[in-house]
Amino acid sequence: MLLYDLHMHSNASDGVLAPGALVDLCVDKGIQIMALTDHDTLGGIAEASRIAADRGVHFIPGAEFTCLWRRQVLHILGLNLDEQDPDLQAYMLELVAVRDKRAEKIAERLIKKGISADILDQARTIAGDASICRPHFAKALIQGGYVASAKAAFDVYLGQGKVGDVKAEWPDPEHVINIIHHAGGYAVLAHPTKYNMTFTRLRLLFGELQGWQCDAVEVSYPGMNPDQARELLKVVKQYELLVSAGSDFHSPEFGWTAPGRFPVIDVDDRHLLNKLVVNFNVEVGLS
Ligand code: AMP
Ligand code: MN
Ligand code: MN
Ligand code: MN
User: Fold this and answer.
1) What is the rounded CA–CA span in Å between residue 188 and residue 212?
2) Residue ranges of domains in the chain
3) pLDDT above 80 for 219
4) Which CATH code fits 95-158?
5) What is the 59 CA–ligand 1 centroid distance (Å)?
6) Which end of the chain is less enclosed by CB atoms within 10 A, N or C?
7) Rounded to an integer, what distance in angstroms lies between the CA atom of residue 64 and that of residue 78?
């Protein structure tokens, strides 16, 4: 049985493990093909790819790009990216600026709500060299004694519709897909059932994604139910998109997620893995 994972985070964004430690954990789990997909950064790719080569794991360089579709934040994975692509590098620099600016706005709004003025410094210190994400603010809020857990931080301050949910100037999906393709990558819509959209709206999105030459859609990840999975697979097939799967692993502390852990998907030739790993005919029955 082939073990793989095409969606994971390191501490180059909001994951907990260093890229090399993530590779080692994947090796422990028997994973043969792994992608690193940090939020809007390629910062962990060099280390992960070096350690993966060392350990004999097939490594796929990637990123999880944030974008905005009809005022809805979406995540699109780029898999098999050429890190050296100058346009991609320029785009990654833009993203650093977008995230920095958003972090300032988040802090401003939190401070208005009575949070201490040093919240931005705290979050930046926690993020270190990583791309600054809301979970870094969550940790800063915990450290400041404002909330007891990350969940509470999102429920009260950072989650959808809360003060810290700042709409940044994220690009539209078509732009992101073009950048991914230009850098030799495949574009994959991440976790489609996690956007609180109806299937009617998802169909609208899939139609547009198809028009923009998006390659694949994740149809298996933790937290989805079998009904959703079936429905999703049907729609993805209808729009002639390939399928992908991944754990969205962030931290060993979250017991419900581990590298390589997501529901079995019953597909063969329509799996993106067939394109990502040449001559690798994917067997059905995974994880
Ligand atoms: P950002 O890309 O900076 O907007 O941060 C998004 C990240 O925050 C996601 O990838 C998750 O890892 C995390 N996140 C989002 N919503 C929640 C939540 N309700 N509870 C805990 N973590 C969350
Ligand atoms: Mn995340
Ligand atoms: Mn995501
Ligand atoms: Mn993710």
Assistant:
1) 12
2) 4-92+171-284, 95-158
3) yes
4) 1.10.150
5) 25
6) N
7) 6
